[in-house]
What we know:
By secondary structure, the chain is α/β, with parallel strands linked by helices. 24% of the residues lie in helices and 28% in strands. A seven-stranded mixed β-sheet has the order 3-2-1-4-5-7-6, sandwiched between helices.
Amino acid sequence: MRIIAGRHRGRRLAAxxxxxxxxxxxxxxxxxxxxxxxxxWGGRERVEGATVxxxxxxxxxxxxxxxxxxxxxxxxLETDRAALAALRANIAACREEARCTVLAADxxxxxxxxxxxxxxxxxxxxxxxxxxxxxxxxxxxGWIAPGAxxxxxxxxxxxxxxxxxxxxxxxxxGAARLLVLQPG
Length: 184
């Protein structure tokens, strides 16, 4: 697993051993960022200069990819200790400590946001059905800015947009289905 594009292009990312963390594959991240940059509702300005939230961060690949492509800041929410260690190592390897905040927090019960984020990534464990409750909790805690783009990774078989969000795009990639949503 590596950073696909931008100033950290080619940087290898550490991942914890075992199946507890399921990093987003390189090709899926590439497809997601291609959508973000080239869709009529997207554009480079949706990433460049953005404040990003990577919830259920795991290795931090999505947030670090956004930073590599020009985002200003990224916050990461993760609870697994092994994933937190890998996440912190990846941030240090990219020398992005000054632009990152790592919170050992559950995305379904997040702390209050310091600032709302215009770009939100969610990749919860597939089997636990946490997407809808996480989006509601993150919205209530002030993490999701009005007009934000929310990039959600679902299992391929279950990809209904949650209530309160408009579906902007949807793409299947193997066992994953990417949904790009907007609140409201």
